[in-house]
Amino acid sequence: MRIGMPHMGNLYIPFKALFQRLGVDFVIPPVNNQHTLSLGVKYSPEGLCIPFKLTLGNLIEAAELGADTLLVPGGSGICRLGYYVTIQEQILRDLGYNGEIISVGFSQHKLSGLLKTIKHLSNNAPWPKIISAFRFGLAKLNAMDRIERIVQKVRPVEEVKGTANQLFTKAINAIDKANDYAPLKKVQVDYINQLNQVTKDDIQPLIVGVVGEFYVLLEPFSNLDVESELGKLGVEVRRTTFISEWTKFTLFLNPLGVNEKKRIHKAALPYLKRDIGGDGWESVGEKVLHAKEYDGLIHLAPFTCMPEIVAQNIMPSTKEDIPVLTILCDEQIAKPGLSTRLEAFVDLLERKRRAHNN
Ligand code: SF4
Asked: For 159, which DSSP code?
C-alpha cells in the first residue's frame, strides 16, 4: 500500500511521522504550486471552492507519484465539503485512477474514527503501536504550532525582514527530521531561543486577527501567504485556528472543560444562532469576541464559499465595530492586487490608531 493525501500547510509532517512509525509507505505530493492549482482548476467544476481545486490537484499529483491509496478530505457538514469525496472520486476515476479512495472526515466519529482508519491503512497494526505513532505525530504538530505562534509575533518587529520566516522554514525541516521525542524537544527549544534572540525594533505593532475558512487560513499558497505579507507591513497576526488546537476540540474532549469554539459560538449568538456550515459561525463570533483586542480583521473566504458569504454579510452589522477586510481566495487572486489592498487597509488602521491616541 502506498498512501497519498492532499496538503494543508505543514500537516504532512505529523502524518509522515505517524506512517513512518507504522512502516507504511507514504508519498507526499509537491508542495502546492502553480502546477497543482492548474491541475485542480482544469479538472474541477468551475464554481467549486479553492480547497476542492487544490486538494484535487494534490491527489492527481500523488497518484502520478504511484499512490495506490488516496486519503480524501470529507465531512458531514452543511456546505459542499460533504460532496468532496463523491465528486473527487468521480473525477479521479474518469482520469483512470483505479486505486483505493478513503474518505477522512473527523467530525462524525472523532478520534475513534480516525484511529480505525489508521488501523486499516497500517494493515491492522496492533493498537499500542498505532497509539504510540499517533502520539508522536501529535507531538510534531504541537511543536510546529508553538514555533509558528512565536514567528507571528517576531515578523512585524524583526529588524531584518524575512529572518523569522527563514528560521521557521529551518525549524519545520528540523521537526520533520526529528526521529524521537528528545531530538524533537531539542529542535523546539533551539528554535524558540533563536526566535527570541532576533534583533527587534522597539515598536507597538498593529494587531490584526485573521479569521475565515479553515483551509484557506492554514494553506499559505491559497492565501498568497497573507500572514507574511502582513508581517512585512509591521502587523502582528493573531489566528485562533491552529491544527493542534482544532485537534483538541474536535478529536478529544477538552481536558480543561474550556472549549474555545463554544465561546466563539456564544459570542456570535446575537447575530447568528446556528451553524451554517464550514466556519461561517466562527468568523462572526471571532469578530465579536476579539473586537476590543484587535485593530482590524482580515477575513479569508474562498470564492463561492456559502458559509463565509453569510459571515461577510453579517459582519458589517455587528455593534462590535472594527474594520474588516474580506479577501476572496480563488485561482484569480494575485500578489500585486493583494499587496495594494493590504497596504491600504494597514494605512487605515494606522490612522485610526493615531486618531484614537490623540
Ligand atoms: S467551507 Fe466553504 S470553502 Fe470550505 S468546503 Fe465548505 S464551501 Fe468549500
From this structure: S
